[in-house]
């Protein structure tokens, strides 16, 4: 019987945490069956590095570039113009991660700037016809309001909202990615979301090097742990791991086709 093919829709593998053992880490991914990885980049230098890397194996790797909400204060006009040109590169599949993060940021003016830059990036994504990968932390209602008003194709990564909120996002056609938090003991909302979501919108991710699943919680995360997350999804939904892995792969391939439409 063929082995499962797994998908990591959100991996920061170009970050410094993997500089010393990138090849060994990727070998573990291959051994685990993680054959699709979206590389998330948050700076021009990281994006260029990821493009050069992904070009060697474009069937396995995709690249996303975005201006993270915590970085909006440093954004200059020159950086924005450079970003607008960079995302036209054919190796960049998606604009992300972008969105809102109110967890650390309490200043109303900076929060307003986050919203402004989020909207600008959604409109840019429409111009270049590439989906968005959205980060939302302690800002779910504002995220929803913007994603409804400026509707576009995309997904919410590391979804932390309620089952009621996930229903509203999927009504708009957005995909939902769940990660290591689903395996945590206190993951009530994530479990309820996983239970209730229409499976055609469900995706898996690590957000590595962060948010490692149990039993690796607190350690550096990596894409080879995706099977643990999919196993938990299958358990929560009362499905087989084979079914869950195949559904997620089909969803991801459908999502990526939307990048080309």
The overall strand count is 8
Question: Based on the structure given, which CATH architecture is correct?
Answer: Alpha-Beta Barrel
What is the CATH superfamily? Metal-dependent hydrolases
Name the overall outline.
globular
Rg, rounded, reads 17 Å
| First-residue to last-residue Cα separation | 34 Å
Question: Poorly predicted ranges (pLDDT <50, ≥5 residues)?
Answer: none
Number of domains: 1
Tally of helical runs: 9
For the largest beta-sheet, the strand count, sense and barrel status come to: 8 strands, parallel
Overall mean pLDDT:
96
Give me the CATH fold name: TIM Barrel
Q: What spatial order of strands do you see in the largest sheet?
A: 1-2-3-4-5-6-7-8
Overall helicity = 40-55%
Using the coordinates above, name the CATH class: Alpha Beta
Order of helices and strands: EHEHEHEHEHEHEHEHH
Structural class: alpha/beta
DSSP strand content: 15-25%
Brief overview:
This protein has 261 residues and is an alpha/beta fold.
Question: Explain this structure to me?
Answer:
- With 261 residues, this protein is an alpha/beta fold.
- It has one domain: Alpha-Beta Barrel (TIM Barrel).
- 43% of the residues lie in helices and 17% in strands.
- The protein is built from nine helices and eight strands.
- Strands 1-2-3-4-5-6-7-8 form an eight-stranded parallel beta sheet.
- β4, α4 (108-128) and β5 form a beta-alpha-beta unit.
- α4 (108-128) runs parallel beside α5 (140-149) and α8 crosses α9.
- The longest helix has 21 residues, at 108-128.
- The chain is globular and about 50 Å long.
- It starts with 5 loop residues before the first strand and ends with a helix.
